[in-house]
Design brief:
By secondary structure, this protein is an alpha/beta fold. The chain contains nine helices and twelve strands. The protein has two domains: about 40-130 and about 235-270, 3-Layer(aba) Sandwich (D-Maltodextrin-Binding Protein, domain 2), CATH 3.40.190; about 135-230, 3-Layer(aba) Sandwich (D-Maltodextrin-Binding Protein, domain 2), CATH 3.40.190.10. A hairpin with a 6-residue loop joins strand 2 (about 60) and strand 3. It starts with a helix and ends in a 20-residue tail after the last helix.
């Protein structure tokens, strides 16, 4: 082929390629629909959908009437009242399933005054603290083995009762890994956890006053707290939302701050404190008690 013909072929090929590129319709760009946030849905419907976990005195439900009560119920109801929202108690959950339900959009908030703690921050947003509680060791009233040294719990001869996924499981792994675990499923009633100590199936349980208060009131002189200079842990309690729900979070935080400052939080907690100092409270700069 002559040089001139070759040049012509190349030129025509370039023009053809340009034309095909320029005039061939481009595939439409697919834009995924934006998922409605819990905040947007709540503002549209004026309804807060709550996931919940029954855990007296934080949250209870009357078996006959179905009426809810408890610290978490009263706090959630007061927040909703101040925001002019209705509350729908949508789904009973466990600590192991609540985050997935939030992510799926089945509810807007976990309306239990649960721990704010590091493992949960990977999946949930927590409100500002509502109050704090201490975690201590609980034993039978006649068991004094650990009174002067809790490190003695860290021994294979000592059995610790735990509930899967609950804070005591993580504390045991961190502080007392040599102890023998008496592990119970995530749905276990905290009263049954303590009953394992009373019946000598286990020697010790790690818990906070809120969880043990109903059992200790109903069963006096059976179990006791091991008194130590400082508690094993102090955790703050909060309501929680799905990861990224910052608009919902900021709205609730403002209301919670108001409730602490004006003394409402103290008034809600007072009737439920059957054992003194069960709640470690946030101080209001103005409210007197």
């Amino acid at each position: 082929m002559k040089i001139g013909h070759l040049a012509l072929v190349i030129a025509l090929s370039a023009v053809t390629a340009f034309g095909v590129t320029k005039y061939t319709p481009q595939a439409a760009t697919t834009v995924a629909p934006t998922k409605e946030s819990a905040f947007e849905r709540m503002m549209k419907t004026n309804t807060l959908r709550c996931a919940y976990l029954l855990m007296p005195p934080q949250l209870s439900r009357d078996p006959n009437s179905g009426q809810f009560s408890g610290v978490a119920y009263d706090i959630t109801t007061e927040i909703a009242k101040r925001l002019d929202l209705k509350v729908e108690w949508t789904e009973e959950v466990t600590f192991m399933t609540v985050a997935e339900g939030m992510k799926a959009g089945r509810y807007d908030a976990f309306c239990l005054t649960a721990y704010r703690w590091a493992p949960g921050t990977r999946a949930m947003e927590y409100t500002t603290p509502l109050f704090y509680s201490t975690t201590s060791a609980y034993v039978r009233t006649d068991d004094h083995r650990f009174d002067t040294d809790l490190s003695l719990i860290n021994d294979p001869s000592v059995t610790m009762a735990t509930i899967d996924g609950e804070a005591s499981t993580f504390i045991r792994a961190a502080d007392y890994p040599k102890s023998t675990a008496y592990s119970m499923p995530v749905s276990t009633d905290p009263a049954l956890l303590l009953e394992t100590i009373a019946t000598k199936k286990a020697d010790v349980a790690l818990s906070n006053p809120l969880m043990v208060m109903p059992y200790l009131v109903a069963n006096p002189n059976v179990l006791r707290r091991v008194e130590t200079p400082a508690p094993l842990r102090i955790y703050s309690h909060a309501l929680s939302f799905a990861k990224g729900e910052h608009d919902l979070l900021s709205m609730f935080n403002i209301v919670i701050e108001e409730m602490i400052v004006d003394g409402t939080m103290d008034r809600i907690l007072d009737p439920y404190e059957k054992i003194p100092n069960s709640f470690v409270r946030l101080k209001s700069p103005i409210a007197s008690r």
